[in-house]
Specification:
It contains three helices and 27 strands. By secondary structure, the chain is mainly beta.
Length: 439
Amino acid sequence: MAFVRLTGVTYLDPELVHDSYVLFTGADSVTRLIDLAGAVLHEWPYAGVPPRILDPALNDGLVGDVGVQLSASGDPRGGIYANGTIGQLDWAGERRWEWGAEAPDGVARQNHDWELLPNGNRLILVTVPRVVPTLGDSVVGDQGLYEVAPDGAIVWSWLAGDHLEEFGFSDEGWAALRETVARDPEDPWGYLEMNSAKSLGPNRWHDVDPDGVFAPDNIMISFRKANIVALIDRSTGSPVWQCGPYYTAQAGVQHQRISVHKVPRPLDQTSGQHNPHMIAPGLPGAGNILIFDNQGGAGYPSAAIGIYAGSRVLEIDPVTSEIVWQYTAEDSGQPPWAFFSSFVSNAQRLPNGNTLITEGMQGRLFQVTPGGAVVWEYHSPYEGYGVAGEPEVTQIRVPGVDRLSLTPLVYRSQAVPFEWTPLRPPTISLPHIDLRRRN
């Protein structure tokens, strides 16, 4: 019997949903803008890692511009080495800006994240193949950040390998990290797999304490393989706030099953997290940190995770280090494993207090209320063997598996305000849709 997977919009509650467009790159490496009814409104034949429609306020008032990957590097290692050039396209697909040839070795090797900054520069997460002395003599995929001016010049840089001693690894953690690197120095995803970087921007903590650690230009980063979320001081390069890699607050390895209502409580073990960022001013929860906690295998040494575990979305007060809101599948009346993505994925707070969640491994995008009700659900119909760039470079390689995997994987999605595109805002009311499977 053939497996049938539901695709498109499977649920929509027009009364409770926050209406917007949604942008994502499918596993076929095409970036699409859809409405909440699932109609494709526009597309670009490029992948984004991640794709992002630019805020016109940061883009000289221009609407509909998108950031994507424009060419592959040709590096057979793929993964974090695969990106050749990145850039900005207008609504018609014409190139406004491209960067990569200006990089130190002629290829961008951008991966996992980028940001258009208020000063017009771009913060770009990159890979730099080099020897990191604290890890041994082999060349490894070190990751870091470049700030790149519009003319392509790198005006600031930071590399993780220069700061490893500052992240609090235990002796056992150092041994596990070095053993991992020695076993596979050319790991195509990097020894830390740094998977996000976002400047804080204006925030209430800085308003109260201008000399504190939450300066708007400090940068929040994530090391997926090390279970670390850290805030990097732009002036020193050192972490000035951090959670992970280890936690003293423990509710046991079943901590994921604690009800959404039992907050605030101390932050406990995250594992393999993605896209930690500070919620922007004007949004519910502004100043708190939103994290997609994958609960996938990770850590030096490996963190304990639950047998019946699922993924979580956590909202954390950065001053008290307490969970003040969370979402798990059980908050929607489902078993915890019904919501699970061991890698990729993200979450985004919306103006009405809802949260857009990308359950990336499954290609599922959905929106939940603060109480955990699912009010929109979409399953990407676009399958492929890779998620960015040229197939021969970006085939999904799983360690120990010798076959390619056909997947609907979505790395991240973005809720896009109507006014950020040239399209007219919709005038037709959203329909009620319920096509979900019933037992």
